[in-house]
Amino acid sequence: MRLFSLFVAASVPVVKVLLLTALGSLLALDHINVLSPDARKHLNTIVFYVFSPALITSNLAKTITYESIIKLWFMPLNILISFVVGSLLGWVVNLLTRPPPHLRGLVVGCCAAGNLGAIPIIIVPAVCKEKGSPFGDRYACNSYGLTYVSLSMAIGAIYLWVYVYNVLRLSIQAIPEELSVSSIGKCTMEPNIAEQGSLIEARHSPIRFVRSEDHADALPSTRFDEEPELGFTYKIKQHAMELSGKLNLKKLFAPSTNGAIVGFIVGLIPPLRKSMIGDSAPFHVIEDTIILLGDGAIPLLTLIIGANLLKGLRSSGTPKFMVFGIIVARYIVLPSVGIGVVKAAVHLNLVQADPLYQFVLLLQFALPPAMNIGTMMQLFGKGESECSVIMLCCYVCALVSLSLWCTFFMWLVG
User: Fold this and answer.
1) What is the assigned CATH class of domain 2-175+256-335+352-413?
2) Domain boundary assignment for the chain
3) What CA–CA distances, in Å, run from 271 to 59, 222, 235, 331?
4) Comparing C-alpha atoms, which of 115, 125, 157 is closest to residue 305?
5) 3-state DSSP assignment of residue 369
6) Average confidence (pLDDT) per 10 residues, the chain, 414 residues
C-alpha cells in the first residue's frame, strides 16, 4: 500500500507533463497550426530571453542564502558527475552503434545532458502536494524544492552551453573536412582557406612590415621601439580571442545564466534582498513582476516540447539501435550510477540527511535529454530530424521510466 501511494504521488506530475505535451503536439498539427514552426521559433525566443531567466531569478532570489549555499555545495558536483558519466555512456553507444559522424556529438549530448529545467520544476512541486509524499509539510517542501530545482536549472544551463554546445559544434564542424576530402573536392574548402589566409596575413602583417629590411628606411624609428610592446599585447589579445571562440563565451553567458547570476546577487546581498524580496520590501513590485513573468515559463516550455516532438513522428531514417542505446544509457545505466553516487555522498557526510534534497540529486540522473539540444541542432542546421526522433522516443519512454524511478527514489530516501 505504501509503495502504491508513492507510485501515485510520482505519477501525477508525469501525467501533468504528458497532458501539456499532448496539448502542444495537438496545437502543432497542420489543420490547427496554432504552434506553427514560425510561432514556435518566436515563442522559443521569448522563453529563452525573458521567461526562463525570470523564473530562475525569482526562485533563486527568494530562497538562496549563505546557509543554503553551504548546504547545496554538492549539487554542482553531482550534475558534473552526471554529465561525465553520461558522456562516457554516449561514447560507448557511438562505439557500439556506429552512427554517422555528424550524429556522434548528438549522441554524447543526449546521454550527458538531462532536462534539468522544465521537468524537475514541474515534478518536484507536484510531488510535494501529493498526500503520499514522504517530504513532510507541503509548503516547506515546495519552498525548499523550488530552491533545489532553480539551482539545478541554473547549473545545468551553464554546463549545457559550455560543454554540450561545443561538443555538438566540434562534431558538426568535422563534416566539411571529411566531405571535402571524399566527394566535394577542393573548391568547397577554398573560401574558408582564403578567409583563414587573409586573416592570418592581416594579423601578422604589421610585425612582418616592421621587420622587413626593404621598408626599414621608410619607417619611423619609433616603430622599432614600440614593436615588442605591440607584439606582446597583440599575442595576449590573439590568445584571448582564440579561447573565447573555442568556448563561445556568448553562449556561456546565456540569459538563463545571467538570470542565475542576478538571483545569486540579490539573494546573497542583504541590502538588495531586504529592498526587493518580501511583501514589506519597498521595491517588492519588482519581485512580483519577475515572478509573474517566470510563471509563464513552465507551460510554454512544455507546450513547445510537445510541438517539437511532433516532428519526430514525421521523420525517418534515424538509426534505431542508436536511439535504443541512448534510451538504455539515460534510463537504466545512468540512474543506477546516480544511486551509487548519492548513497556514497550520504555515507561520506557530503550530503545532509534531507530526503527532498537527496531526491532531487537522484532525479538529476533519470531525466530525459535536454530540449535545448534540439535548439542547438537548429542553430547548426544539421541533424534536426534525427534529434526530433531521439527526443520523441526518449520523452515517450520517460512517461514510464520517470514514474518508476521517482517511486523508487522516494522509497529509497523516505
Assistant:
1) mainly alpha
2) 2-175+256-335+352-413
3) 18, 53, 42, 45
4) 115
5) strand
6) 71 81 88 86 84 83 80 91 95 91 89 86 82 78 82 83 84 60 39 38 45 46 47 63 58 73 88 89 91 86 80 70 92 95 91 88 92 78 80 86 90 84
